[in-house]
Design goal:
- By secondary structure, the protein is mainly α.
- Helix content is 65%, strand content 0%.
- It is built from two helices and no strands.
Length: 66
């Protein structure tokens, strides 16, 4: 009766999948893993925003803003 998780390609994992894994480790009270997963989720969110902005600039050209 051991729990197991398997997600496909570890180099192409979604934020929702990371949150599912985080939830598992919160439930098992393995907070060291929670901390690392939270950092990964935050980094992925920032990277997603950066990619969105990069694509927006490529599509619309560079804009000047304050």
């Amino acid at each position: 009766g051991k729990d197991a998780m398997f997600y496909g390609d570890p180099f192409n994992i979604s934020t929702d999948e990371l949150k599912d894994i985080l939830n598992y480790f919160e439930n098992t009270e393995e907070y060291e893993y929670c901390s690392e997963l939270k950092e990964l989720i935050d980094a992925k969110n920032v990277a997603d925003i950066d990619m969105f902005l990069h694509n927006l600039v490529e599509k619309n050209g560079k804009t000047n803003h304050l």
